[in-house]
Specification:
This protein is α+β, with helices and mostly antiparallel strands. The chain contains 6 helices and 8 strands.
């Protein structure tokens, strides 16, 4: 395992992935979420709420003592952190099917470092592939609670010459 975010965990095939059900499978490297990234997210989404982008006002008035990342910014880092934590070999296609549940239990102050822990909740055969449900728990370095917990659903389809799961 890549405990502590020590590189990418490589899973040989879908059968091996399915055998990891109910286990923490991978941990990403740390990523700093700085004010520049927060501002770029505000630009992309039009979410200019002052607790995210007005550094001086947030320092004075926010209960967090400064700006905090948008919850959806944190969630949007799911693919980035996932790709740096886990690789499944022999796939032809991966399809993001969505999210079952998302929560933001704690704020993410600007300048914080986060990483994600990936636990495989379910792995069920589907026609031509495997549907997996993952829990991604985003932790802030030094934080007491996760800043985001998301259950995501993905479908994996093996490439030519790779066995389908039954």
């Amino acid at each position: 395992m890549n405990e502590g975010g020590c590189g990418v965990r490589v899973i040989e095939n879908l059968q091996t992935l399915a055998s990891l059900k109910s286990q923490e499978v991978a941990v990403s490297e740390w990523l700093t979420v700085d004010q520049e990234r927060i501002d770029e997210f505000a630009q992309a989404t039009g979410d200019w709420q002052w607790i995210h982008v007005d550094v001086e006002r947030a320092r004075r008035e926010s209960p967090f003592g400064g700006t905090v990342a948008h919850g959806f910014l944190t969630l949007s880092l799911l693919p980035y952190l996932s790709e740096r934590a886990l690789r499944i070999e022999g796939l032809r296609l991966t399809v993001n099917c969505g999210l079952n549940r998302v929560r933001f239990p704690a704020p993410l102050p600007a300048g914080s470092r986060i990483r994600a822990r990936f636990t495989l909740l379910a792995a069920d055969p589907i026609e031509g592939g495997l549907e997996a449900q993952w829990r991604a728990s985003f932790e802030r370095e030094g934080g007491q609670k996760p800043v985001c917990v998301a259950e995501s659903v993905a479908r994996y389809y093996p490439g030519p010459g790779n066995a389908e799961i039954s």
